[in-house]
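Predict the 3D structure for this chain.
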Amino acid sequence: MVSKKLSPLTIVVNLTVLFLVVLWTLPTAGLLISSLRDKDQIVASGWWTALGTSSQNAIYRAPPPSAQVEETGVFVISGNVFEDNAGSVSAFGININAPAAYEPGQTAERNDGSKLTLQENGDFRIESATAFEGSRGDRIFFTASVPPRFTLENYQTVLTAEGLGKSFLNSLTVAIPSTIIPILVAAFAAYALAWMKFPGRALLLAVIVGLLVVPLQMSLIPLLKMYNGVGAFFGVPAKGYVGIWLAHMGFGLPLAIYLLRNYIAGLPREIMESARVDGASDFEIFTKIVLPLSYPALASFAIFQFLWTWNDLLVAMVFLGTGDNELVLTGRLVNLLGSRGGNWEILTASAFVTIIVPLLVFFGLQRYLVRGLLAGSVKGG
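Done. Predicted structure below.
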Protein backbone atom coordinates (compact mmCIF):
# COMPACT_ATOMS: atom_id res chain seq x y z
CA MET A 1 0.00 0.00 0.00
CA VAL A 2 1.53 3.28 -1.14
CA SER A 3 0.98 6.24 1.18
CA LYS A 4 0.30 9.55 -0.50
CA LYS A 5 2.65 12.27 0.66
CA LEU A 6 1.05 15.66 1.26
CA SER A 7 2.62 18.64 -0.42
CA PRO A 8 3.89 21.55 1.70
CA LEU A 9 1.15 23.80 0.29
CA THR A 10 -1.56 21.32 1.33
CA ILE A 11 -0.12 21.11 4.83
CA VAL A 12 -0.02 24.91 5.14
CA VAL A 13 -3.61 25.20 3.91
CA ASN A 14 -4.83 22.55 6.34
CA LEU A 15 -3.01 24.14 9.27
CA THR A 16 -4.39 27.56 8.33
CA VAL A 17 -7.94 26.24 8.18
CA LEU A 18 -7.46 24.49 11.52
CA PHE A 19 -6.12 27.70 13.06
CA LEU A 20 -9.10 29.71 11.78
CA VAL A 21 -11.54 27.10 13.09
CA VAL A 22 -9.95 27.16 16.54
CA LEU A 23 -9.74 30.96 16.46
CA TRP A 24 -13.50 31.17 15.84
CA THR A 25 -14.62 28.25 17.99
CA LEU A 26 -12.87 29.11 21.25
CA PRO A 27 -14.40 32.59 21.74
CA THR A 28 -17.79 31.31 20.64
CA ALA A 29 -17.62 28.41 23.08
CA GLY A 30 -16.56 30.80 25.83
CA LEU A 31 -19.48 33.09 25.02
CA LEU A 32 -21.93 30.18 25.15
CA ILE A 33 -20.57 28.87 28.45
CA SER A 34 -20.62 32.33 30.00
CA SER A 35 -24.23 32.87 28.92
CA LEU A 36 -25.22 29.78 30.94
CA ARG A 37 -23.26 30.66 34.09
CA ASP A 38 -24.40 32.48 37.19
CA LYS A 39 -23.70 36.21 37.07
CA ASP A 40 -21.53 36.10 40.20
CA GLN A 41 -19.38 33.34 38.76
CA ILE A 42 -18.90 35.25 35.50
CA VAL A 43 -17.35 38.13 37.46
CA ALA A 44 -15.31 35.85 39.74
CA SER A 45 -13.60 33.61 37.18
CA GLY A 46 -13.15 32.98 33.46
CA TRP A 47 -15.31 30.64 31.38
CA TRP A 48 -12.52 28.04 31.17
CA THR A 49 -13.01 27.43 34.92
CA ALA A 50 -16.75 26.87 34.56
CA LEU A 51 -16.54 23.19 35.50
CA GLY A 52 -14.44 23.82 38.60
CA THR A 53 -15.09 25.41 41.97
CA SER A 54 -14.60 29.18 42.03
CA SER A 55 -13.55 31.41 44.92
CA GLN A 56 -15.72 34.49 45.42
CA ASN A 57 -15.77 37.45 47.77
CA ALA A 58 -19.39 38.10 48.66
CA ILE A 59 -21.56 40.24 50.90
CA TYR A 60 -24.69 38.88 52.53
CA ARG A 61 -27.39 41.01 54.10
CA ALA A 62 -28.78 39.29 57.19
CA PRO A 63 -32.54 39.33 57.91
CA PRO A 64 -33.87 42.51 59.57
CA PRO A 65 -34.31 42.78 63.36
CA SER A 66 -37.95 41.84 62.94
CA ALA A 67 -36.78 38.25 62.28
CA GLN A 68 -34.99 37.92 65.63
CA VAL A 69 -35.92 35.13 68.04
CA GLU A 70 -35.40 35.17 71.81
CA GLU A 71 -33.68 32.07 73.17
CA THR A 72 -33.21 31.87 76.96
CA GLY A 73 -32.68 35.59 77.32
CA VAL A 74 -30.53 35.94 74.18
CA PHE A 75 -31.83 37.49 70.95
CA VAL A 76 -30.79 35.51 67.85
CA ILE A 77 -30.91 36.05 64.09
CA SER A 78 -29.87 33.01 62.05
CA GLY A 79 -29.87 31.73 58.49
CA ASN A 80 -27.58 30.69 55.66
CA VAL A 81 -25.52 32.99 53.46
CA PHE A 82 -25.98 30.77 50.39
CA GLU A 83 -29.25 31.03 48.51
CA ASP A 84 -29.30 27.37 47.54
CA ASN A 85 -27.15 26.11 50.45
CA ALA A 86 -24.39 25.29 47.95
CA GLY A 87 -20.92 26.50 48.81
CA SER A 88 -18.15 26.42 51.36
CA VAL A 89 -17.02 29.39 53.45
CA SER A 90 -13.25 29.75 53.77
CA ALA A 91 -13.14 33.04 55.74
CA PHE A 92 -15.41 35.83 56.93
CA GLY A 93 -15.36 39.28 58.50
CA ILE A 94 -17.57 41.92 60.08
CA ASN A 95 -16.42 44.90 57.99
CA ILE A 96 -15.35 45.55 54.44
CA ASN A 97 -11.76 46.41 55.41
CA ALA A 98 -11.16 42.91 56.84
CA PRO A 99 -13.44 40.50 54.95
CA ALA A 100 -11.27 37.47 55.83
CA ALA A 101 -10.35 38.18 59.46
CA TYR A 102 -11.97 35.05 60.89
CA GLU A 103 -12.04 31.39 60.00
CA PRO A 104 -15.27 29.39 59.74
CA GLY A 105 -16.59 28.39 63.15
CA GLN A 106 -14.98 31.30 65.00
CA THR A 107 -17.02 33.96 66.79
CA ALA A 108 -16.53 37.61 65.91
CA GLU A 109 -17.55 40.36 68.33
CA ARG A 110 -19.23 43.35 66.72
CA ASN A 111 -19.05 46.98 67.81
CA ASP A 112 -22.60 46.94 69.20
CA GLY A 113 -21.81 44.02 71.50
CA SER A 114 -23.43 41.35 69.33
CA LYS A 115 -21.58 38.25 68.21
CA LEU A 116 -21.42 36.64 64.78
CA THR A 117 -20.61 33.00 64.13
CA LEU A 118 -20.36 31.69 60.57
CA GLN A 119 -19.95 28.00 59.82
CA GLU A 120 -18.22 26.46 56.83
CA ASN A 121 -21.54 25.36 55.28
CA GLY A 122 -22.84 28.95 55.37
CA ASP A 123 -24.99 28.77 58.52
CA PHE A 124 -24.67 31.95 60.59
CA ARG A 125 -25.85 33.02 64.00
CA ILE A 126 -25.96 36.59 65.27
CA GLU A 127 -26.77 36.86 68.98
CA SER A 128 -27.06 39.76 71.37
CA ALA A 129 -28.00 40.24 74.99
CA THR A 130 -30.27 43.13 74.00
CA ALA A 131 -32.92 43.22 71.33
CA PHE A 132 -31.85 44.20 67.83
CA GLU A 133 -33.19 47.54 66.60
CA GLY A 134 -33.57 49.18 63.22
CA SER A 135 -35.10 48.15 59.91
CA ARG A 136 -32.14 46.64 58.07
CA GLY A 137 -30.05 43.58 58.77
CA ASP A 138 -26.30 43.57 59.28
CA ARG A 139 -23.90 42.76 56.46
CA ILE A 140 -21.72 39.66 56.52
CA PHE A 141 -18.51 39.69 54.47
CA PHE A 142 -17.15 36.29 53.51
CA THR A 143 -15.02 34.38 51.03
CA ALA A 144 -16.56 31.19 49.68
CA SER A 145 -15.77 28.36 47.32
CA VAL A 146 -18.83 27.95 45.13
CA PRO A 147 -19.44 24.87 42.92
CA PRO A 148 -20.24 25.43 39.23
CA ARG A 149 -23.80 26.49 38.56
CA PHE A 150 -25.48 26.69 35.16
CA THR A 151 -28.77 28.43 34.58
CA LEU A 152 -31.11 29.70 31.86
CA GLU A 153 -32.03 32.81 33.84
CA ASN A 154 -29.86 35.00 31.61
CA TYR A 155 -31.78 33.95 28.50
CA GLN A 156 -35.07 34.29 30.36
CA THR A 157 -34.18 37.88 31.26
CA VAL A 158 -33.31 38.71 27.65
CA LEU A 159 -36.23 36.94 25.98
CA THR A 160 -38.83 38.32 28.38
CA ALA A 161 -37.64 41.92 28.11
CA GLU A 162 -40.41 44.35 27.30
CA GLY A 163 -40.51 45.32 23.63
CA LEU A 164 -38.09 42.61 22.48
CA GLY A 165 -40.60 41.07 20.06
CA LYS A 166 -41.29 44.42 18.42
CA SER A 167 -37.57 45.12 18.11
CA PHE A 168 -37.05 41.69 16.55
CA LEU A 169 -39.65 42.47 13.87
CA ASN A 170 -38.08 45.89 13.33
CA SER A 171 -34.70 44.26 12.69
CA LEU A 172 -36.24 41.84 10.19
CA THR A 173 -38.04 44.72 8.47
CA VAL A 174 -34.74 46.57 8.17
CA ALA A 175 -32.42 43.68 7.29
CA ILE A 176 -34.40 41.76 4.65
CA PRO A 177 -35.12 44.65 2.22
CA SER A 178 -31.69 46.14 2.95
CA THR A 179 -30.18 42.87 1.72
CA ILE A 180 -32.40 42.23 -1.32
CA ILE A 181 -32.45 45.77 -2.77
CA PRO A 182 -28.65 46.27 -3.01
CA ILE A 183 -28.21 42.80 -4.55
CA LEU A 184 -30.77 43.50 -7.28
CA VAL A 185 -29.34 46.91 -8.12
CA ALA A 186 -25.73 45.74 -7.90
CA ALA A 187 -26.37 42.70 -10.11
CA PHE A 188 -27.75 44.84 -12.94
CA ALA A 189 -24.94 47.38 -12.55
CA ALA A 190 -22.28 44.66 -12.44
CA TYR A 191 -23.53 43.08 -15.67
CA ALA A 192 -23.58 46.47 -17.40
CA LEU A 193 -20.03 47.26 -16.28
CA ALA A 194 -18.78 43.80 -17.27
CA TRP A 195 -20.43 43.11 -20.66
CA MET A 196 -22.03 46.30 -21.98
CA LYS A 197 -19.95 48.95 -23.72
CA PHE A 198 -20.87 52.57 -23.10
CA PRO A 199 -18.94 55.85 -22.67
CA GLY A 200 -17.44 56.45 -19.24
CA ARG A 201 -17.60 52.82 -18.13
CA ALA A 202 -14.00 52.76 -16.89
CA LEU A 203 -14.44 56.08 -15.07
CA LEU A 204 -17.61 54.87 -13.41
CA LEU A 205 -15.88 51.69 -12.27
CA ALA A 206 -13.01 53.75 -10.85
CA VAL A 207 -15.46 55.92 -8.90
CA ILE A 208 -17.12 52.80 -7.46
CA VAL A 209 -13.75 51.41 -6.38
CA GLY A 210 -12.94 54.77 -4.79
CA LEU A 211 -16.17 54.74 -2.81
CA LEU A 212 -15.01 51.54 -1.08
CA VAL A 213 -12.61 53.55 1.09
CA VAL A 214 -15.14 56.22 2.15
CA PRO A 215 -15.89 55.76 5.88
CA LEU A 216 -19.54 55.34 6.76
CA GLN A 217 -19.29 57.82 9.63
CA MET A 218 -17.98 60.57 7.33
CA SER A 219 -20.80 60.29 4.81
CA LEU A 220 -23.63 59.60 7.24
CA ILE A 221 -24.49 63.20 8.15
CA PRO A 222 -24.32 64.58 4.55
CA LEU A 223 -26.47 61.68 3.38
CA LEU A 224 -28.99 62.35 6.13
CA LYS A 225 -29.20 66.04 5.24
CA MET A 226 -29.70 65.23 1.55
CA TYR A 227 -32.37 62.66 2.37
CA ASN A 228 -34.21 65.09 4.64
CA GLY A 229 -34.14 67.73 1.92
CA VAL A 230 -35.46 65.38 -0.75
CA GLY A 231 -37.99 63.92 1.69
CA ALA A 232 -39.30 67.36 2.61
CA PHE A 233 -39.75 68.17 -1.10
CA PHE A 234 -41.77 65.01 -1.76
CA GLY A 235 -43.49 64.93 1.63
CA VAL A 236 -41.69 61.81 2.89
CA PRO A 237 -41.15 61.56 6.70
CA ALA A 238 -37.58 62.06 7.90
CA LYS A 239 -37.66 58.91 10.02
CA GLY A 240 -38.84 55.69 8.42
CA TYR A 241 -37.96 52.40 6.84
CA VAL A 242 -37.55 53.90 3.36
CA GLY A 243 -34.67 56.04 4.56
CA ILE A 244 -32.78 53.22 6.22
CA TRP A 245 -33.32 50.94 3.19
CA LEU A 246 -31.84 53.59 0.91
CA ALA A 247 -28.98 54.24 3.34
CA HIS A 248 -28.02 50.58 3.54
CA MET A 249 -28.32 50.30 -0.22
CA GLY A 250 -26.01 53.26 -0.72
CA PHE A 251 -23.40 52.02 1.73
CA GLY A 252 -23.52 48.46 0.42
CA LEU A 253 -23.58 49.11 -3.34
CA PRO A 254 -19.87 49.89 -3.93
CA LEU A 255 -18.64 46.60 -2.50
CA ALA A 256 -21.52 44.65 -4.06
CA ILE A 257 -20.92 46.07 -7.54
CA TYR A 258 -17.18 45.55 -7.27
CA LEU A 259 -17.46 41.90 -6.20
CA LEU A 260 -20.25 40.97 -8.60
CA ARG A 261 -18.62 42.77 -11.52
CA ASN A 262 -15.39 40.80 -11.07
CA TYR A 263 -17.33 37.55 -10.88
CA ILE A 264 -19.63 38.25 -13.84
CA ALA A 265 -16.71 39.47 -15.97
CA GLY A 266 -15.06 36.07 -15.45
CA LEU A 267 -17.96 34.11 -16.93
CA PRO A 268 -17.20 32.37 -20.27
CA ARG A 269 -17.43 34.76 -23.19
CA GLU A 270 -18.56 31.94 -25.48
CA ILE A 271 -21.88 31.66 -23.64
CA MET A 272 -22.60 35.38 -24.09
CA GLU A 273 -21.67 35.37 -27.75
CA SER A 274 -23.78 32.26 -28.43
CA ALA A 275 -26.78 33.88 -26.76
CA ARG A 276 -26.36 37.06 -28.81
CA VAL A 277 -26.11 35.01 -32.01
CA ASP A 278 -29.41 33.33 -31.06
CA GLY A 279 -31.02 36.78 -30.80
CA ALA A 280 -31.10 37.15 -27.00
CA SER A 281 -31.20 40.69 -25.60
CA ASP A 282 -29.03 41.91 -22.74
CA PHE A 283 -31.95 41.57 -20.34
CA GLU A 284 -32.57 37.97 -21.41
CA ILE A 285 -28.86 37.15 -21.14
CA PHE A 286 -28.78 38.67 -17.67
CA THR A 287 -31.88 36.94 -16.31
CA LYS A 288 -31.51 33.54 -17.99
CA ILE A 289 -27.73 33.05 -18.08
CA VAL A 290 -25.85 35.45 -15.81
CA LEU A 291 -28.08 35.25 -12.74
CA PRO A 292 -28.17 31.41 -12.55
CA LEU A 293 -24.39 31.30 -12.97
CA SER A 294 -23.90 34.01 -10.32
CA TYR A 295 -25.59 32.27 -7.40
CA PRO A 296 -22.30 31.77 -5.49
CA ALA A 297 -21.39 35.46 -5.62
CA LEU A 298 -24.95 36.60 -4.91
CA ALA A 299 -25.33 34.26 -1.95
CA SER A 300 -21.92 35.21 -0.53
CA PHE A 301 -22.69 38.92 -0.66
CA ALA A 302 -26.18 38.31 0.74
CA ILE A 303 -24.63 36.70 3.82
CA PHE A 304 -22.27 39.63 4.44
CA GLN A 305 -24.94 42.25 3.75
CA PHE A 306 -27.47 40.59 6.03
CA LEU A 307 -24.92 40.25 8.84
CA TRP A 308 -24.09 43.94 8.59
CA THR A 309 -27.67 45.21 8.42
CA TRP A 310 -28.85 42.83 11.15
CA ASN A 311 -26.15 43.93 13.61
CA ASP A 312 -26.18 47.59 12.57
CA LEU A 313 -27.06 50.11 15.25
CA LEU A 314 -25.64 53.44 14.08
CA VAL A 315 -27.53 53.73 10.79
CA ALA A 316 -30.71 52.43 12.41
CA MET A 317 -30.54 55.04 15.18
CA VAL A 318 -29.97 57.86 12.68
CA PHE A 319 -32.53 56.98 10.00
CA LEU A 320 -35.13 55.08 12.06
CA GLY A 321 -35.01 56.52 15.56
CA THR A 322 -34.67 55.29 19.12
CA GLY A 323 -38.30 55.18 20.22
CA ASP A 324 -39.86 52.03 21.61
CA ASN A 325 -41.71 51.37 18.35
CA GLU A 326 -38.67 52.01 16.12
CA LEU A 327 -35.82 50.51 18.16
CA VAL A 328 -34.08 47.56 16.49
CA LEU A 329 -32.98 44.41 18.31
CA THR A 330 -29.39 45.52 18.89
CA GLY A 331 -30.59 48.78 20.42
CA ARG A 332 -33.03 46.98 22.70
CA LEU A 333 -30.31 44.64 23.94
CA VAL A 334 -27.95 47.56 24.53
CA ASN A 335 -30.57 49.11 26.80
CA LEU A 336 -30.70 45.88 28.81
CA LEU A 337 -27.00 46.20 29.64
CA GLY A 338 -27.61 49.29 31.75
CA SER A 339 -25.91 52.65 31.63
CA ARG A 340 -22.49 51.24 32.59
CA GLY A 341 -22.63 48.04 30.53
CA GLY A 342 -21.51 45.86 33.43
CA ASN A 343 -24.15 43.14 33.14
CA TRP A 344 -21.93 40.52 31.53
CA GLU A 345 -24.54 37.78 31.90
CA ILE A 346 -26.99 39.84 29.81
CA LEU A 347 -24.29 40.64 27.26
CA THR A 348 -23.36 37.01 26.65
CA ALA A 349 -26.97 35.82 26.43
CA SER A 350 -27.86 38.72 24.13
CA ALA A 351 -24.97 37.83 21.84
CA PHE A 352 -26.37 34.35 21.23
CA VAL A 353 -29.89 35.67 20.78
CA THR A 354 -28.70 38.03 18.04
CA ILE A 355 -26.66 35.42 16.13
CA ILE A 356 -29.50 32.90 15.83
CA VAL A 357 -31.02 34.54 12.74
CA PRO A 358 -27.67 35.17 10.96
CA LEU A 359 -26.73 31.53 11.53
CA LEU A 360 -30.04 30.40 10.01
CA VAL A 361 -29.43 32.66 7.01
CA PHE A 362 -25.90 31.35 6.58
CA PHE A 363 -26.84 27.68 6.69
CA GLY A 364 -29.91 28.34 4.56
CA LEU A 365 -27.82 29.94 1.82
CA GLN A 366 -25.24 27.16 1.89
CA ARG A 367 -27.35 25.00 -0.41
CA TYR A 368 -27.73 27.89 -2.84
CA LEU A 369 -23.97 28.26 -2.86
CA VAL A 370 -23.57 24.60 -3.80
CA ARG A 371 -26.36 24.81 -6.37
CA GLY A 372 -24.78 27.89 -7.90
CA LEU A 373 -21.42 26.19 -8.16
CA LEU A 374 -22.99 23.27 -9.99
CA ALA A 375 -25.01 25.55 -12.26
CA GLY A 376 -21.93 27.59 -13.06
CA SER A 377 -19.87 24.65 -14.23
CA VAL A 378 -19.14 24.71 -17.95
CA LYS A 379 -18.03 21.76 -19.99
CA GLY A 380 -15.07 22.31 -22.26
CA GLY A 381 -15.72 21.79 -25.94
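The chain has 13 helices and eight strands.
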